[in-house]
Design goal:
Its main location: membrane. It is found in: Membrane. Keywords: Membrane, Transmembrane, Transmembrane helix. This is Mitochondrial import inner membrane translocase subunit TIM23. The chain is mainly alpha-helical and 188 residues long. Among the domains are: 68 residues; 52 residues. α3 packs across α4. The protein contains five helices and no strands.
């Protein structure tokens, strides 16, 4: 016995005009408010909610990666402009493109590695300061910046290490203050 089309079987021949099936249509539930997902992190224990900070591994990955990426972008743009300065009137288009790519790649790698190492040292310093003091605030970032600047410039002497430490502390303090200002006024 051949069955004709019933109400429960969809018609696959007219898929472009077919209405999509809504399994909640008989329940009179608005779909938009069906799933209320939380927007803030949920913690199993209250102790976890009191210490809302990244782990040392997350800091290491984030600071090193973002420093390498930003250093690579800056270095590639420096190499891009230096390639334009080195063009000769007899260069063909292929030679110009090759010169731009080589110069941008070389300079981007070099700057990315240098700035990435600074990010790595900063991440280690900040994790060390947080482990020793059990605080994660503005002064922790300033101390980590001070230590990073001093370590990065230590091979050039004591005076250079002191200047590098002071500059590192100032830069870290300015970055944290800028981040707090953006949080407050830009609602990020």
């Amino acid at each position: 016995m051949a069955r004709s089309g019933s109400d429960h079987e969809p018609d696959h021949t007219q898929s472009s005009q077919a209405r999509l099936y809504n399994p909640y249509q008989d329940l009179n539930i608005p779909i938009q408010t069906l799933y209320q997902l939380p927007t803030s992190p949920e913690f199993l224990f209250t102790e976890e909610s009191l210490h809302q900070r990244r782990s040392w591994g997350e800091k290491l990955t984030f600071y090193t990666g973002s420093a390498y990426l930003s250093g690579s972008i800056v270095g590639a743009s420096i190499g891009f402009f230096s390639a334009f300065k080195s063009f000769e009137p007899t260069d063909t288009l292929k030679l110009k493109v090759n010169r731009i790519l080589n110069s941008s790649g070389h300079s981007g790698r070099a700057w990315g590695n240098r700035i990435g190492m600074v990010g790595l040292i900063y991440a280690m310093m900040e994790s060390g300061v947080v482990a020793v003091t059990d605080r994660d605030d503005v002064w922790t970032s300033v101390a980590a910046g001070l230590g990073t600047g001093a370590v990065c410039r230590a091979a050039r002497g004591v005076r250079s290490a002191a200047v590098g430490g002071a500059l590192g502390g100032l830069v870290a303090g300015a970055v944290v203050a800028g981040k707090q200002t953006l949080k407050r006024y830009a609602m990020i």
